[in-house]
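Feature request, filed as a ticket because there's no other form

It would be nice if the structure record came with a short human-readable summary line next to the tokens. Right now we just get the raw output. Example of a typical job, pasted below so the devs can see what we mean:
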Amino acid sequence: MKAFSRVVIGAAVLAALAGCSSIRDHRGYLVDPALTDSIQPGIDNKLSVEKSLGRPTFVAQFGEPVWYYVAIDTHQAAFARPRTYKQIVMKVAFDPAGNVRNVERTGLDQVVRLDPDHHVTPTLGAHRGFLEDLFGNIGTVGAPGAGGPNGDNTGRGPNGS
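Raw output as currently delivered:
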């Protein structure tokens, strides 16, 4: 009986630890180094790139014609947000005739990490509280410099600037 309880406790501990394992995920383009290295500027064109790599993850809508192939690998611990540990962005730029002009590869070195400040976006101007926002315009209607019908506008906005 004592051995059975040890087995049950051991199984419970293993089940609890299995729940703490991290989840790995891949999103986007499946990178094949042999195919991505085969794209040559001046030799390949849009058709050959599409046949080699497939449709791009997204295409530039403005400016020069550019195709982007994006691959992101993440891991997520239990009860946490996913964290990116590997990212590859392949940028294939074309000339006006549709020939490959340039191929660039970047990784996590180009990613900007943002640390939100308590879910508040910092802005320029006066820092006003809820009550100041709620009652801040009382008495300003018709006051001198309030921009009434006389065209007497000083250019001051609701934040006092």
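Something like this underneath would help us a lot:
The longest strand covers residues 83-94.
Helices lie at 2-18, 33-37, 46-53, 130-135.
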